[in-house]
Description:
Blueprint: E1 12-13, E2 22-28, H1 32-40, E3 48-54, E4 61-65, E5 68-72, H2 74-77, E6 80-84, H3 88-94
Antiparallel strand pairs: 1-6, 2-3, 2-6, 3-4, 4-5
Amino acid sequence: MNGNHGREPxxxxxxxxxxxxxxxxxxxxxxxxxxxxxLDLGFLPGTQVTVVRRAPLGDPTAYRVRGTVLAxxxxxxxxxxAEPITDPQAEAEQC
Length: 95
């Protein structure tokens, strides 16, 4: 599932981030129960998320969110827009 979903130009789907990469969540394009589940788990706009590891077959992927490691399927992670952090120092100064 690779689509734009109306994302801002500098954002990418959470599922597109590389292992070890950190991003800041900007939008959630999921609806219904999936959206509620993501929000309940802490996937909130403005929250940092780091890709911890991928399963051997590529799905699911483990993400660190608010100090907790959570696994998401690719289909769900592709509905979260995140802005990759390229310079951690600059990001820390922005907050």
